[in-house]
Each structure stands twice: as C-alpha cells, then as structure tokens.
Predict the structure of Thymidylate kinase.
Amino acid sequence: MTIFSPFDATLGRGAAQRRGALAPCVALIGCDGSGKSTLARDLTALLGREGPTRSMYLGLGTGDLGRRIGRIPLVGALAERFLTGKADKAHAAPDKRLPGLATALAMFGFSLARRRRFERVLAFRRRGIRVVTDRYPQAELAGGFDGPGLAWTRRGSALVERLAARERQLYEDMAAYRPTLVIRLNIDVETALGRKSDHTRAPLERKLAVMPTLKFGGAHIVDVDATRPYPEVLATVLALIQVEAPAA
Ligand SMILES: Nc1ncnc2c1ncn2[C@@H]1O[C@H](COP(=O)(O)OP(=O)(O)OP(=O)(O)O)[C@@H](O)[C@H]1O
Ligand SMILES: [Mg+2]
C-alpha cells in the first residue's frame, strides 16, 4: 500500500491535491466518557471557520449498540446477555480460542464497516479537507480498543483463523496511515463512571490501562487532562490543532 506523507502545511490546497498529499487528520482518543464525541462535534464547527473540516466516527459502535438493544424489554435483556458474553469472551481472556464462525463473521462485518468510514476519511483528506476523527483504528492490540476484534494469535477453526488474519490486514492497512496528531484525552475511572452511568467499572479500568500503551504507529501524541471543565478542554484542544495540524 502507498503511504502518503502528511500534508505539507506550506503548500496551498490545490498544490497539495496535485501532489497527492493528504490534509491533516486529528485523532481524538481516550476512554469512554473522555469527551471524544462532544469535542469532535464542537471542534468541527470551530475549525470549519478556518478551512474545510469534517469529523468521522471511527469506532465500532458495538458498545452503544449493545446498550441500545439492552434497553428493549425481554428481547433486549436476552440479546444483551448474549452480546456481552461474546464480547467478554473475545476481549477478556487472551488464552481463549477464537469465537465460532457466526460471531467471527459479525466482528469482521463491523471491521469492514469501520474500514468504509476510514476510506471516507482518506477521500476527504485527498480533497484537502481536514478531518477530526472520533477514535482511530490501531493494529497493535487485538480484542477491542479499536483494534481487530479477532485476536490473530489465538487458534480457532481454519475458516475463523483466516478471517482473523484478513481482519488483521485490514487494521494494518488503516494504521499505516498515521494521524497528523493524536490527542489522548485522559480521565480517571470515577470521572468515566460519572459521565457514563450505564457503563461498568471493570471494562473501563481495562481501557484506561491500555490507552497509554497504544502508539498509533509512532504518530505524534499529545496528552490532555480531560477531567477539567469542558470549556477548558475544548480551548486546549483547539489551540493544539491550530498549531500542530493547521488548515491548508
Ligand atoms: N470536560 C468535560 N467535563 C464535563 N463533562 C464532560 C466533559 N467532556 C465531556 N463531558 C460530558 O460527558 C459525557 C460523555 O462525553 P462523550 O459522549 O463526548 O464521551 P466519549 O469519549 O465520546 O465516550 P464514548 O467512548 O462512550 O463514545 C457527555 O455528556 C459530555 O457532555
Ligand atoms: Mg463517543
């Protein structure tokens, strides 16, 4: 796969397009409740005054989907128990085998949907449009955390192992495009629980432990204390982007 160099801020947008360069991409990452979606929305509006800017959700959405299904009486309760069981098996026990074909296909389908949204991000960037992403795919760690759902190190049926290998490649291809700037929104578990009342402590703690270990292929990562009042966090992140990932 061709890896384009980050957009050169000294070029005009037209020149950048002619050279095949990419407009900046700012990735907002952090635990659930760190403020990614809220910031993505507000930043896009504010940055849009300086130059064309779009936002894109690059998560899987399975957590929210599971919770939404869980709110439907009876069916919801059963489906949620099923999905949560699958997710726990897939995410929490590294010594376990890969899931069965149905679950593996569902996970692979979610990854394909994510890749489609990732391609839209690239299309915007090629047209000189700066993009703020809500989450960013990584190829460093399997089993959630915006990496592959199927852990490529585990054994399973031959077909599921092939799906896992194929899924890993999807993430390698996406992660080869490093964001111009990664903003890591740091919060503690109490803040996360306070902002996301339908979440439970253990998965949040796992996510909080993993977040600082992800490197996003060596991208430029800036840490932001996202426990501070929202207007302060927004102002900090806006200023960072204006300096590190300016519009064309
Ligand atoms: N700095 C802040 N101070 C207080 N409340 C905040 C702050 N940032 C976000 N919030 C609030 O916390 C809640 C969660 O924020 P948001 O949905 O943006 O988080 P998220 O990172 O997108 O979470 P998820 O990963 O679950 O999608 C929202 O109600 C939002 O208004
Ligand atoms: Mg969100």
Notes: The first strand starts at residue 25 and ends at 30.
